Structures
1.
Amino acid sequence: MSKQKLFPKNKKSLTMVLVLFIILLVTLLTSGCIEKNLINDPTTGAINPPINLPPLLDGIYTTSTQFYDTRGYAQQLDINIKNGIITQVNFKEISNNKLDRLTQEGEGKTWEGLGTLTLGSLYYHLYSDLLLTQNPEKIEAISGATQTTEHFIALAKTGIDQAGKGNHEPGKIVTSDTYIIRSQTDPEGYQGVLSATFKGANLITLSYDEIRVEDGKSKIKLSDVEKGINYKAMFGTLVQDTLISQNLSPIFPEGELSLEKFKYYETLRILKDSRNSFSN
């Protein structure tokens, strides 16, 4: 008789323990405690919260470059924060005609000397590094794809800074970009070559010369005694005036435009068209 009475009592106790365990398990799952104990588990997809980084406020944060780069692309990064953790990233490189780089060049685009690296695998590398480390400083740069990598890292830093403040306004980053612009070749075989470096909206360095396409001869070392022209002085004055004025569309009196000045202003026009601001 005692055994028969004990059995139902044990069964009842066991049921109560099971119920309490299930309640506790549901509580842990809904609170996220279990997920936070997993460290970047590739099987479950759970990601450990960042260590020694400021807390992030939930939401989607968008950052982009201020201008199109030397290849004609602007970069945009969307970061999705949930429970203080970066859970999703979306990176796009957008051309002047608003096309995605993946659409224009394809995921299988490769770089010379970089083995099997493709545009698609480059993006995957950047995504996974940011998701797994939760820290842009720990993203591994890829030699040969430096510009894309550097812009991604800078965008991620700005996005995380916004997330720390809960600022959902689209952010812009300042980039340094160097453009090499070439004019058409003149009847004497010379081509204007302009090198311009911007930091954000500011033109910080500028150089100009005319190079003979056939043999690479530099015009800056020459003078036209008959016309009284020292090309080094002429080009230097043009460059200095542009740096001071920051004006890529100068207006000159009619009849004062020599062939050399015409080529210089042609390169400025092309530069202005290349250095377009990006609006997302």
2.
Amino acid sequence: MNASSSTVDADEVARFERLAATWWDPRGKMGVLHKFNPVRLGFIKEAACRRFGRDPKRLDSLAGLRILDIGCGGGLLCEPMARLGAEVVGADPAAANIEAARLHAAQSGLAIDYQITTAEGLADAGERFDIVLAMEVVEHVADVSLFIKRCAEMVKPGGMMVAATLNRTLKSFALAIVGAEYVLGWLPRGTHQWDKFVTPNELEAALERHGLRVVDETGVIYNLIADRWEISSDMDVNYMVTAEKAQ
């Protein structure tokens, strides 16, 4: 399949498939995602509770909502979403990632529908969701506009999409690639390609073009002193966006 019909970048899939066994090791090569998880989970939960009139303090605050995590990897986001009561579908084109996700979910006693598939595969099958998540995946797809289009198709009327990605700035090159991959060794070298990073304007334009209205955006920074990721107004490197579809 070529880029005009597929969102999948085969080289990216192969790269992450090689890391499949490390997804659930908080001290391993995916350790940075484990530290990042609380911030993105909190952002998604708050946005969902606002949109669907839920109480964020409830342990089942996402009950009854059907959520897709596209490019789910080993399921780091799927599991906490399922624990909050959501009906979760985790999709990834890398078979090894899905196997790792299924194994961990089974060990955790969680019922999550993991599928080896793509955004276009699900959209073509007529799948629809209250919430579509594209977290740290936009910068890895072959065609950003097509990817957003197919994801937007799957958002139910009144639903929402949340995306997290990396801005294409000199600062992101210095911190997300040189710093994170080569100096600190947080990520395997070659994890990211700077020319595939997406600016907030580009992402928001794609979302709006495909029928979604951007309602919130925020930056995420790493606090070295506290050793944690935090919400910030600084969107120069990591950022997250929420977009909604009209009823």
3.
Amino acid sequence: MKISFTLLILSLSLIANSQTYPNIEIKAAAFSEALVTADYQTAVDYFTPEVFAQVDANKLKEIWNQIQDQAGTYKSKAAVTVLKEGEIVASYQALTFENTVLDLKLAFDASESVAGILFLPHKIIELDLVDTDQIFEEEILVKTGKDVELRGILTLPKDATKVPAIILVHGSGPNDMDETYGPNKLFKDLAHGLAEKGIAVIRYTKRTREYTGPPAIDIASLTLYEETIEDAISAVDLAKKDKRIDKKQIYVLGHSLGGMAVPRIGTLSKNTKGIIIMAGNAKPMEDLIYEQYQYLVEEDGIVTPEEESLVVNYEGQLKALEELLQDGETDGILPLGLPAKYWEYLAEYNQVETAVNLKKPILILQGKRDYQVTTTDFQIWKKVLANRADCTFKIYEKLNHQMREGTGPSYPKEYNVKSDLPSYLITDIYEWINSQK
């Protein structure tokens, strides 16, 4: 089976990939990086022949200099957003200059080449807020320090008074607030389903989607703490200030890598009542990724030269990681291209041991068909926490990593099939929260 990094980084990397148009988001990010670093020849390589005939490298340099003459010196850029607009697919990326913020809009044709380029006044995309007979939503800002502001949504039951709340914590990658993948939106579905049962839910854009550089993110020193943990704690603190929420009933639910992170979030945040680990890995992340490679390579029983090369390259990255952790440095490429600080933090953080020492209720949810975080991880959690009366374990026969039903072995292609979040998953979370009162 032919595989690629974009499949494997679905829930386990920081590399920006669009959930619906991964190639376009990657190309848009690469184009803007070439533009702002004055690599104009690389930038124009993304143009269609028609656009290149009008805008070659010298012309693009002239345009970029004119933009900065008017807007001021370029400062930073946000993450890329990709939207379908009629017959075209367009990317938007906010560029911050000394005097203003502009949106870089790229229009892509069917061959995923840039067929148009525009600089527009920055437009904040309106959130799709729900208001029904049962629930309503409000836009919020999750703030961490002076440099990080993340747009989010608070979903509440109608006439909410001192209701429990859940903070949703993303898996890896630059996730949007809905944790969108293909046609499915796990966090949006969780928020609506839980609010209909009387539980408030906060979801927000992940820092690595909202920002791509300093001061909000320093890639060289980025760890799980800055990527995920710190902002989740800020969201908990925000929930505590809302008078409609019971400040003694605030929980954090982490999915995938977020599930790995929530034991530490629960430890560091004194305002959390308990944690929910949804498809969260108990094994080290580097081992998990290797298992994913092996699973996908062996899907059709045929190992192509490309697949063999991917596995060999990753094994080389594992050796570099081993060297880093033993010697404190390495000249090799680390897994997924993540910085040394990231891997050093993970080596120091033992999520299982942290969960054991956490004196708060824990709910662990696992799909039996999940190939990314498997039942082996679930059994590790269960083994170390089985003697705890305040720990509950739920495993679901039909669910995959995205908590969607299916039959037979799970593979990435099923993530692109629209399906409903099972009502029994929502019910189990609600009943567990209700039992903690």
4.
Amino acid sequence: MHKLDEILREIKSRKRKTVVLAGAHDVEGLKALKKAMEENLVDAILVGPKEGESSARELKLEAEYFKVEDPEKIADLTVKLVREGKAQILMKGLIKTSVLLKAVLDKETGLRTGEVLSHVAVVEAPALDRLILVTDGGMIIKPTLEQKVSIIKNAVKVAKMIGIEMPRVACIAAVETVNPDMPETMEAAILAKMNQRGQIKDCIVDGPLGLDNAINMMAAKVKKVEGEVAGRADILLVPDIHSGNFLGKAAVYLAGGRIAGVVVGARAPIVIVSRADSADSKLCSLGLASLLA
């Protein structure tokens, strides 16, 4: 797939998945769900306080509504609905992320799989001839080497779902040479070697690579950076949450691109959207989650 619209078209040809919205008094979340339902992408279940039911009614959003006032009970019920198979996608509404994730990660009643939860953004930009995945710009603040291995595995699963059979993973740093004073470059080199030895499978990992020579062949040739990933990366593994967050937003606000994001690693994909996200971004995120569910 080369465009986010291709993901949406693919979803429309499949059986609709059900999204459960945690904190359904979120008017923007309700609007996003209504649009997705009108596009025949998903069905919905709503969980939240009674004022959310009025908002859903005003928007003419037809969905089952569970009236729950307490945020922790809202989170518990949404997770329960996923565990019982009544919903396949979890979406954050007006509820603190920490409260929702506490329920998701509960050892007894949550949606744990043993994997790290990480955020994967799928970016479409005018300057690119393909979709690029950026991770992790939304969950883990400063991932350890071990966590980076899990983050790569999660991103590879998403890449394969959008048709990239052997994803090329670039471990991004400020420079493309190993520098002991820059720990990110050291870990990038270690990840590349782990991949060569079969410790990270189903992808090709290289690094450190700069952003330019990771995604642009001309930049790679000028800097004489060679390898199977240079200039052709499908997945950009960023060193911390800040760089991933900046990169995703820059693609949208500076380059006029589009973005879809989802948290993976749990038993169901989790959609966590910002109020500032465009309606298109929210729709694409729900489409991506539906593809993964």
